[in-house]
Amino acid sequence: MASEASPCLGVPPHRLWAVRPGIYEDEKGRTWVTMVVRLSPSQRARGRGSPGGTHEPSITVHMWQMPVHPREPMSPSQLPLSQLPLVWQLYPGRRYRAMDSRLWEVVDHVQITSTEQLILMQLLPGE
User: Fold this and answer.
1) Paired sense of beta strands 95-98 and 87-91, if any
2) I want to staple 122 with a disulfide (CB 3.0 to 4.6 A). Which of 13, 19, 55, 59 is the partner?
């Protein structure tokens, strides 16, 4: 049975910060679980057939808002290295800016059955 997606929700969370590997918390104390991290060739690499084109992969992240068993959050120094930022801050234009200044576009923010889903895609410099 196919699940129905509702129309886009309002404003996504204003801030998401890592509390454990793959788990973020928003400003309302809700937890967001990283369900899928997809690496794919960037649009610029596919658009340019030239050898001088960039080969930096594009990162797309699917996160679901869902409760998790309470545990003590980890400090940033305890979190393992990851391609994902420790903190995302919402900026105008439906984009997040990470602590390292990388920009992430909100691709989708929908409710599927009872689960709120947020899909973010890293923007490469110059995009």
Assistant:
1) antiparallel
2) 59
Q: What is the pLDDT of residues 13-52, one digit of tens each?
A: 999 999 999 999 999 999 999 999 998 876 554 444 445 5
Which phi and psi (to 5°) does residue 119 adopt?
A: -115, 125
Give the residue carrying structure tokens 């886009």: 8
Classify burial at 79, counting beta carbons within 10 Å of its beta carbon; exposed 0-12, middle 13-18, buried 19 or more: middle
Specify the pTM: 0.78
Residue 111: which region, alpha, beta or left (left: phi > 0; alpha: psi -120 to 50)?
beta
CA torsion through residues 98, 117, 37, 108, sign: negative
Per DSSP, the residues of 74-97 read PPTTTSPP-SS-SEEEEETTTEEE
Say how far apart CA 5 and CA 7 lie, in whole Å.
7
β-bridge mates for residue 90, sequence order = 96
